[in-house]
Structures are given as structure tokens and as C-alpha cells.
Amino acid sequence: ALIAFITFLLLMRTFRSILLPIKAVVLNLISLGAVMGLVQMGRGVGIMAGPLLGGLLFDLQGNYRMAFLLTVALVIVAIGCMWGVRWTAGQAGRASVAGQRARGAG
Description:
Blueprint: H1 2-15, H2 19-61, H3 65-103
Helix pairs in contact: 1-2, 2-3
């Protein structure tokens, strides 16, 4: 709420308009709500699928060893995905800066 308020004040002072800051704050809150909804949806699917998969693996194997190994494997995959996204975002940023320098903008 504090960031939205500061954004509103800065935009209102910069552009001397009331409609533009209101529109910007509302659209920022809508996009934040959409992202938070997707995160909660993914969390809900994980919470639902975890016990079902663990129970299925227990029924098939007779112990929880495979369920724990699968959990460790999925955590490693998730860490790899986060690292990959961070790496590609960094590469895109460096390429953008290099392109601007080549054009003489920096």
C-alpha cells in the first residue's frame, strides 16, 4: 500500500493529472493480484498432488523411500529452473546494454 501511495504521489506531481496516477495504481494492483493468484493456484495444486502421489508411491512400494527421493528430485529440478530463469534474464539484460552501447546510447 505504501508503494502504491508513493507511486500515486510521484505520478500526480510529475504529470499534474489525477486520472493517470489512479489508472497506473489500479493496473499495478490488478497485475499484482493476477500474479499472486497464479502463485496460490500452483501452491494449491502442489498441496493437492503431494499427498496423493506420496500415498500412491507408498501403496506401490510399501515404504516412503521413493516418495522422499521423488521430492528431492523435484526440488533439484525447481532450483535448476529458477537458476535458468535468472541466468537467461541476466543474459538478456547484458545483451540489451551491449546493443545500446553499440548504437552509441551509452
